[in-house]
């Protein structure tokens, strides 16, 4: 009771804080929700549904769809629960290693109340489930149960491929330490997990899988500037940045965490299309490096626990205040109002931005244009989808368009459509605005619009 009461209180506070602000947001979550729903309707991933990553997340989305009863708001609760599980696992690992309640609690707090976890746990993107299984992989690695370690690492990669640096870390350490038997056990575990999860795809949609995942994902163009991502991370999670540097500096002593940090930096530098969200693969392991950092500070500077707390707490409070004041309601949207408008208009199809249109389709019962779920702009740039053709199809089917826009009356700036997935000339001629709602977004856009095409 003494051991688990503190972590129970921390997790309860985190869950209550996040759960009291649940809502549907403009997010890739809505793509995964609808993809999970379509799989339950008998559609085949990759063959019937364009998808650009490995298949475990869609399968997991189907499971979450079932246990939430198809309620999209509850679906947004799942990443919060997943992040809480990661926090518990960090606490458990640190406590078992160091038998120190303060260090275990601090490590958990550094993770749960980091800015990146507070902000990205608003969305179900698979990163927190991948974090759970990657931490479990590390836990079994520490306990020398290498088959299970391989199984859970395989599940992490099959959820999010950009957890690859963790696999490279394991392989590097096995080879450098000449642990050949352990390496074979690890590979047997990960290979078994891979075969089991990939089997439906290998049987029913292997050519489509190759096309969607490798031909598209590995060659897509860069989105956000890496320099901007790095600076945002440093300024919003300085503690984690310090722990990253510490892990690299002490790589000889802390081989796993140091090697992972090095591979993480290399991945960030060389993978072309990276996003802030992707950094989540390292965050739990940075939190796990805190005990050694704490001991090193005490050894070299003789700082007492109280002094370290007074340094740590302000950073965590700053993370919380920054998130709470500027990001807590980011991208929240009134989907019920929009779905009622769509039902009243009763169009034959919906065509629009992928961060909300799939959910509006599910809520209103109006099918997506040509059954297309993912309308990411990169897909159009690659020539897989054609904005002119699909806009023409939407007009011919008298569809409703779902668009991002902006409205700044003081500056006389008002645009109904800013997305490159539409052919603006056709939209101007044949579609008119029927509903516009305000949404807080990261860029200049601040409206979500519905346009009726005739």
Fraction in beta strands: 5-15%
Terminal CA distance reads 66 Å
The DSSP helix count reads 23
Q: Please describe the biggest sheet, giving its number of strands, its sense, and whether it closes into a barrel.
A: 5 strands, mixed
The computed structural class is alpha+beta
Number of strands: 5
Sketch the topology as an H/E string, one letter per element. HHHHHHHHHHHHHHHHHHHEHHHEEHEE
Quaternary organisation of the protein chains: single chain
Give the overall average pLDDT: 93
Classify the helix fraction into a percent range: 55-70%
Would you summarize the structure shown here?
With 454 residues, this protein is α+β, with helices and mostly antiparallel strands. It contains 23 helices and five strands.
